[in-house]
Write a structure and sequence with these properties.
The protein is built from six helices and six strands. The chain is an alpha+beta fold. The strands form two sheets. Strands 1-3-2 form a three-stranded antiparallel beta sheet. β2 and β3 form a beta hairpin.
């Protein structure tokens, strides 16, 4: 399997699944019904846990096991079709690869926001020049508080509770 990164997939329009399938075919990967359903589930905006993706796949194919979903996600990640992001203490989240970007995770409500990769340039350059360390900001989220939760805290109200599953 060639792990060279293809160009970013197009935005989440109707062709994104077919674009992802074309990348898989270029690398000699099989296009199974479960893999096609998984890609269709990932077309939905946001960052999804493997459990959420499995639930979406099982709506159409109830016999698909969670291990199949994880195995496919791993294969798709190696081909740079899917990005895995670690958000706080929750499960890893997945989304279709797109233009370089990083993530901000609200510690109060669990929301995830994306920032263009340019926003992380100084951090990545500093890590490389001082430590020889290459950072991939798409793989992690920087914790903090979103504007809504900051505003409610300033007004003396409690922010929304953190949900079990991150949302996008």
């Amino acid at each position: 399997m060639n792990s060279e990164a293809p160009a970013a997939l197009p935005s989440l329009g109707a062709d994104v699944v077919e674009s992802a399938i074309a990348v898989l075919r270029e690398h000699g990967s099989r296009i199974t019904p479960a893999r096609r359903l998984l890609l269709t589930a990932l077309r939905e905006p946001g960052h999804h846990s493997a459990g959420q993706i499995a639930a979406a796949v099982r709506e159409h194919a109830p016999d698909v096991h969670l291990t199949t979903v994880y195995r496919n996600l791993d294969d798709l990640e190696q081909l740079h079709v899917v990005d895995r992001t670690y958000v706080s203490h929750g499960p890893a989240t997945y989304h279709l690869s797109s233009a370089a970007h990083g993530h901000l995770a609200c510690e109060a409500c669990g929301s995830i926001a994306e920032l263009p990769g340019e926003a992380f340039r100084t951090l990545t350059e500093t890590a490389t020049s001082l430590r020889g360390f290459e950072i991939n900001p798409a793989r992690f989220a920087i914790p903090g508080r979103c504007a809504h939760c900051r505003e409610t805290t300033v007004r003396g109200r409690r922010p929304r509770p953190i949900s079990d599953e991150p949302n996008g």
